[in-house]
Design goal:
The structure holds two protein chains of two kinds.
Chain A: H1 3-17, H2 26-36, H3 42-53, H4 59-102, H5 106-130, H6 135-150, H7 155-174
Chain B: H1 2-15, H2 25-35, H3 41-53, H4 58-96, H5 98-102, H6 105-133, H7 137-152, H8 157-171
Helix pairs in contact in B: 1-4, 3-4, 7-8
The chains are: A mainly alpha, B mainly alpha.
């Protein structure tokens, strides 16, 4: 089997079976990449994850592109990236096409109202799990929250502002 | 040229989507609801819930869903391509120079401000989603109940969503 086809099929599987966000799929990717195919060792894999998390983009897609590129250049990256995105692409289009027809049924509306309330709990939990309490962190969290939720500033500017403050703080401490 | 506008918006979302998952919700919300009014907040929350129940990252799922609503299969394809294009280019570039960047001081500095900002972004989206999703005592109790069970038990988020849907059908 060609490398491209293999990459495509492996990431197709990863894309189809990983529910609940990027971090859930890491063990599955590691088994395929490190154990089954020996494309890289465990240390290299961990380093690649750190890198995929520190750049913009969904971690699953970034990982697919990273590994694909390592193994077979741009074509490898395209094969793996296409594979990881394809399952959710098809599923979401199917959901979107029935969504408009069912959402006005009153029973469905009640179900969705219940689910929307649960989404608040899920988001809040995700935020609190990432929380690490230091004075500087709380300051940035407070500013970000205020900027986006209350003042409704474009999140891009808020992100850039927080990055600037972080750099200023570290440069200050180094002196 | 709705397709071009969609593509540009999701290109922007892609390049600024640090931290994954819920961190990018305020960004997506700003582009597709506040600025362009392509969908309403209720639909946006439904996309978040759908993303939890189906495989795939939220950013990609939102891109696909909104693209489909605005321009069918082609819209979906354009959006999905837009949201992953720039991160993919960055990743390919960095994978060549991974050793150099691993211990870079600049990256560490950037992250000392970015990391807490991502928490703020998530909490802000909990707040805006909450303002719409919690509109009476029943929805408040569902939100609180789900919050407690996902934090006190090891229940899978998909099951929590199913429970909330059943509760919604029962009491709303």
């Amino acid at each position: 089997m060609s490398k491209n086809l293999k990459l495509f099929l492996i990431y197709l599987k990863i894309g189809a079976f990983t529910f609940g966000g990027g971090f859930a799929m890491i063990p599955l990717i590691e088994r395929e990449v490190v154990e089954n195919n020996k494309w890289m060792d465990s240390q290299e894999f961990t380093d690649s994850l750190a890198l995929c998390q520190s750049v913009p983009g969904a971690i699953a897609v970034n990982n697919a592109v990273f590994i694909g590129y390592r193994i077979n250049g741009v074509l490898g990256a395209i094969s793996a990236g296409f594979g990881v995105v394809l399952p959710s692409f098809l599923i979401i289009m199917a959901v979107a096409s029935v969504f408009a027809q069912i959402k006005d049924i009153s029973m469905i509306d009640s179900i969705f109202n219940g689910i929307r309330a649960a989404v608040v709990a899920l988001i809040l939990t995700a935020g609190l799990r990432l929380l690490s309490v230091t004075a500087f962190n709380l300051f940035i969290i407070g500013l970000t929250f205020l900027g986006i939720a209350v003042l409704e500033i474009n999140p891009i500017f808020v992100i850039l502002g927080a990055i600037t403050l972080g750099i200023m703080k570290n440069r200050n401490e180094d002196r | 040229m709705i397709l071009a506008e969609l593509f540009l918006s999701f290109l922007k979302i892609g390049i600024f989507s640090f931290g994954g998952g819920y961190c990018m919700l305020p960004l997506i919300q700003n582009e597709i609801i506040t600025k362009n009014n392509w969908i309403n907040l209720d639909t946006f929350i439904d996309i978040i819930a759908t993303s939890q129940m189906t495989p795939g990252p939220i950013a990609v799922n939102s891109a696909t869903f909104i693209g489909f609503q605005m321009g069918g299969v082609l819209g979906s394809a354009v959006n999905t391509f837009g949201v992953i294009l720039l991160p993919a280019i960055i990743v390919m570039f960095l994978s060549k120079y991974v050793e150099k960047f691993k211990d870079s001081k600049l990256i560490k500095d950037i992250f000392s401000g970015l990391r807490p900002a991502l928490v703020g972004l998530i909490l802000a989206s909990a707040y805006t989603v909450g303002k719409t999703a919690i509109f009476n005592l029943q929805t408040l109790l569902i939100a609180l109940g789900i919050f407690i069970i996902i934090n006190k038990t090891k229940i899978h988020p998909i099951l929590a969503i199913v429970i909330s849907g059943v509760l919604g059908a029962a009491v709303l």
